[in-house]
Write a structure and sequence with these properties.
561 residues; alpha/beta; 7-stranded mixed sheet; 12 helices; elongated
């Protein structure tokens, strides 16, 4: 699409929302700033919500104002306490705290009274048309709508029917309450929208008190008003709903009504944020759950090891605008990588182990190697790593017949073991199929720490783990879940599954880690030298630690042609 703009890492962020607020405060429209984050508790939050959270809470913080969490629980058939708890956990993890927790259901009585007020003003009517008939009567973007045959129903009759709807006399879908606005409006949202429908369902907070529930477009402005919100910040798809938002506030004579301001939503390539499609991924077993580290959910990113600070930095880099744009997933990974480079502890781990036996190193001898905990933070000091006669290196770090610019272990080249000694190839062992099972080497006793009396240098430096103190671990290597930049564009409910990346997860068993990592806990993150950043997964047990690869040291993702 030509109108899609890819946001580059060096883009200068902007924030027009603050400009509007500055203007409102200067002109005395409001004397305070109050925002809210109003998710519907019908699923888990995703990367797009992270942007909204940062905008809502950071805006209130900037102006010394208030930001509430308000759960939009107007559809009891899709909502659950599980999602409410998950939303709260995600917000706290991102580093924000709400001033109050509210629910749209807190205002059901007030919203209902507002509906009665519209009826008394002759601005609402009960419509017995079917959903398909109402949809047909609304017209199109180029053709005006048609008045419902029930549009001029007398006020008293409408009040009576609405009361009977409320008392449960009618079945779901029998009738709805519609606002009476303008069926010829160029804005389809203004063509007598439905504001209440019958829904005989148990509500997670109000129980069976209600069998009619307000529609979002009606409940949203009234909840904002009741709560005292000054600036209702929402994503750009609600821009065409703003005239309706303002109409309800005006005709219901709400004093000092909130101001709705829209911003472009977060669109990140190679991700899927549709709750319906994410739920299908979960239900079809294509991912392990909502918190699968490949998912673009906040809980998935947290489990993968993305730091909250990096996610907030990602949102800051993007800035706030009204322009539709697609952000490269690599920018998010870059923010994660930058943060972890500065803050993650270093560790030795071998993912695909190959045993190396140092023939001239004494069987009973060990050396203690001092390595930096984090070279960017020398104040953290060093930690001890054991070196012994038998060690593990990566299988890729040895070749019998290497190409010309191969600087790792091979018959022709000497290499340095990180923090330890220089070693040279001597021989190797194979199994019955000819696969190399072990490599024999010799070491230079005078090269400890990488310095030699003759001053010789080598180009290859390998990481390693002592076989004497190695601990087994499972490592899960994650790549992007999809092979196409925008899987949401695919037609149909299931076709996006055809674009799943078959290499999005590789599980490595019997990896070797340094014994110092045996006491780690879920969520701890390390830089495995020469490998990337890895986080302890919740599946870890006492006898087996599981690591998720959070991000590689460099962006290695190859975009499909």
């Amino acid at each position: 699409m030509e109108d899609i703009k890819i946001i580059e890492e060096n883009m200068t962020p902007s924030n027009f929302i603050h400009d509007f607020i500055d203007e409102d405060l200067k002109e005395g429209v409001y004397n305070k700033v109050q925002t809210r984050f109003p998710p519907e508790p019908n699923g888990y939050l995703h990367i797009g919500h992270a942007k909204a959270i940062c905008i809502d809470f950071a805006t209130a913080e900037k102006y010394g104002g208030t930001c509430n969490l308000r759960l939009d629980d107007t559809n009891p058939t899709k909502e659950d306490v599980e999602y409410v708890d998950a939303i709260k956990e995600d917000i706290k993890w991102l580093g924000f705290n709400w001033d109050n927790v509210y629910f749209a259901s807190d205002y059901f009585d007030f919203i209902y009274e507002c509906a009665l007020k519209l009826i008394d003003k002759g601005l609402a009517y009960v419509d017995e048309s079917s959903a398909d008939e109402i949809r047909e009567m609304r017209g199109t973007l180029t053709e005006a709508g048609i008045n419902s045959p029930y549009r001029d129903r007398p006020i008293e009759e409408t009040k009576d029917l609405f009361k009977r709807m409320t008392e449960g006399e009618f079945e779901n879908g029998a009738m709805v309450l519609r606002a009476k606005i303008d069926m010829a409006s160029s804005n389809i949202n203004m063509r007598d929208p439905v504001i209440y429908r019958i829904m005989k369902a148990h509500h997670h907070r109000t129980g069976d008190k209600w069998c009619v529930y307000p529609m979002y477009d009606f409940a949203h402005p009234l909840s904002d008003a009741k709560e005292g919100v000054t600036h209702s910040l929402c994503s750009l798809e609600f821009e065409n709903h703003r005239p309706l938002y303002n109409w309800f506030l005006e005709v219901l004579e709400i004093p000092t009504p909130p101001r709705q301001i829209e911003f472009a939503r977060m669109n990140v390539n190679y991700t899927l944020t549709s709750k319906r499609k994410c739920l299908k991924l979960v239900n079809d077993g294509l991912v392990s759950g909502w918190d699968d580290p490949r998912m673009a959910t906040i809980c998935g990113m947290r489990r993968r090891g993305y730091p909250a600070e990096a996610v907030r930095a990602f949102v800051d880099k993007i800035g706030v605008s009204k322009a539709y744009s697609v952000i490269d997933y690599a920018l998010l990974e870059s923010c994660v990588r930058d943060y972890l480079n500065e803050n993650a502890e270093r560790a030795m781990a071998v993912l695909r182990p190959l045993k190396v036996i140092i023939d001239n190193y004494d069987e009973d001898k060990t050396d203690i190697i001092e390595v930096d905990i984090n070279p960017n933070k020398p104040e953290l000091g060093k930690k001890a790593v054991t070196f012994s006669k038998e060690i593990f290196i990566e299988q890729d770090d040895f070749m019998l017949d290497p190409p010309g610019k191969y600087f790792r272990l091979c018959p022709q080249k000497e290499v340095r073991l990180k923090g330890a000694y220089y070693i040279k190839y001597a021989s190797h062992e194979t199994d019955e199929n000819g696969n190399i099972t072990a490599v024999h080497c010799t070491y230079d006793p005078e090269s400890f720490g990488g310095e030699t009396p003759d001053g010789r240098k080598v180009k290859g430096t390998l990481h390693w783990v002592s076989a004497k103190t190695a601990v087994d671990a499972e490592v899960r290597l994650y790549e992007r879940l999809f092979n196409v930049p925008n899987p949401s564009d695919e037609e149909g409910v299931s076709s996006f599954a055809d674009n799943l990346n078959p290499e999005s997860l590789t599980v490595l068993e019997n990896c070797k880690i340094d014994k110092a990592l045996s006491g780690v806990k879920t969520g701890d993150t390390f830089q495995f030298m020469r490998q990337g950043y890895f986080t302890v997964d919740k599946d870890s047990a006492d006898k087996k630690i599981v690591f998720n690869r959070t991000v590689a040291l460099k962006d290695s993702f190859v975009k499909k042609a």
